[in-house]
Amino acid sequence: MSELVCITGATGNLGKSVARMFLHRGCRVLLQSRSQQRLDALVQQLQSSCGCDAHICAIVADVTTEEGRLKLARVCSALSGTDRVALVHLVGEFPRNAEFSQLQSHELTRIVHINALSGINTTRILASQIPLHSVVLFASIGAHIHLQHRPHYRLSKMLVKDAASVLSRELAPNIRVNSVSPGAIFVDSPPAGAPPETRIPLARYGKGNDIAEAVWFLTKQATYVTGQDLVVDGGLSL
Ligand SMILES: NC(=O)c1ccc[n+]([C@@H]2O[C@H](COP(=O)([O-])OP(=O)(O)OC[C@H]3O[C@@H](n4cnc5c(N)ncnc54)[C@H](OP(=O)(O)O)[C@@H]3O)[C@@H](O)[C@H]2O)c1
User: Fold this and answer.
1) Whether residue 62 has its Cβ less than 6 Å from ligand 1
2) What is the pLDDT of residues 168-192, one digit of tens each?
3) Is the distance from CB of 111 to CB of 95 less than 8 angstroms?
4) What are the structural domains, with CATH classification, of the chain?
5) What's the pTM value of the predicted model, to 2 decimals?
6) 38 Cβ closer than 6 Å to some ligand 1 atom
7) 91 Cβ closer than 6 Å to some ligand 1 atom
């Protein structure tokens, strides 16, 4: 049986590109979302572009809760048997503009919970219950450069980047843990307020495929890389 790749936050912009790439390259995917409707739409899209429905499974769960993570682990375990599993954790939220002084403590807690702790805890549960071999978490360019008006987002993504390093020590040698820090990536046209392309050394916005290639590299090819953050931003953070 081909390798199972569990993709959490799969219905988002980048999740679709990552799922498509792994399917095209012969893996099985397990897609997670909180919404049956969004999952159905995604499965349909992937089936029509990849023509390989036998390789797609989907699960409705909220991996920001322990109940949701345990459900995911049960399904992963049933699907993988003794085969190795990779986790790509894309769950994340881009919060409203606010300075620290304007933030309520529950807003800060919430964004750290969704953006950082969901991935750390999903890794913890899957690592203890299934034959996991690779984890890719999602940080951000915001963990590397100053992001105006979103200190809470920045903090949450700095935590993700450092979590990959901390987890990788504990889970070695069987499981590699890395993170990806995307820059300005747009699957469709860029929204108002996006940084001008002239500010990006490689002179274009990133595409979903640019991120999917980085995830593929970390999951399938970089077998001697662990605890690292891979910045995929066309040089924007330089
Ligand atoms: N796109 C970029 O340019 C960029 C740049 C830097 C970093 N990133 C990071 O890369 C990852 C993927 O980005 P994306 O653009 O694909 O994001 P996205 O389109 O917003 O999708 C993120 C997914 O996370 C899930 N999610 C969102 N809020 C949640 C919540 N409160 N509780 C549980 N699940 C929630 C959603 O799944 P359901 O609603 O279906 O459950 C959603 O499909 C994120 O971690 C993001 O921060 C992206």
Assistant:
1) yes
2) 999 999 999 999 999 999 988 777 7
3) yes
4) 4-232 (3.40.50.720)
5) 0.96
6) yes
7) yes
